Amino acid sequence: MDKNQKDLRMVLMALTRTREEEIGCDECFERLERFVELDLSGLDAARAMPLVEDHLGKCGDCREEFEALLEALREEGRGPVGRLWARLRRSLGPG
Ligand SMILES: [Zn+2]
Q1: Measured in angstroms, how far is the CA atom of residue 69 from the centroid of ligand 1?
Q2: Is 71 exposed, middle or buried (0-12, 13-18, 19+ CB in 10 A)?
């Protein structure tokens, strides 16, 4: 990790603290799909959702989930996994 990344991490952590407490795995998972969509849209997901980014940096399980979801959403509509995720997304409610 170079200095810039380290600085960025500190900024994100500071942002996290000023907004609310850090999130757990459940909350991370709830927000993950939106986070991935932002990322796939070319937007700055880490900046928009620093709590998720923060958690992903600390939690290997959620990181794996994030990567799987990223892959799934890329493939959405093109296979059973994509359809499964699409259904899951709807069940998570609006937003
Ligand atoms: Zn986690």
Answers
A1: 14
A2: middle
Enter the pTM of the model. 0.59
Q: What is the pLDDT of residues 50-81, one digit of tens each?
A: 999 999 999 999 999 999 999 888 877 555 66
Between the CA of 11 and the centroid of ligand 1 the distance, in Å, is 20
Say how many Å lie between the CA of residue 24 and the centre of ligand 1.
6
User: CB burial class (10 A; 0-12, 13-18, 19+) of residue 55?
Assistant: buried
Distance 86 CA to ligand 1 centre (A): 22
Query: Cα of 26 to ligand 1 centre, how many Å?
Result: 7
Residue 50 is encoded by which pair of tokens?
């620093």
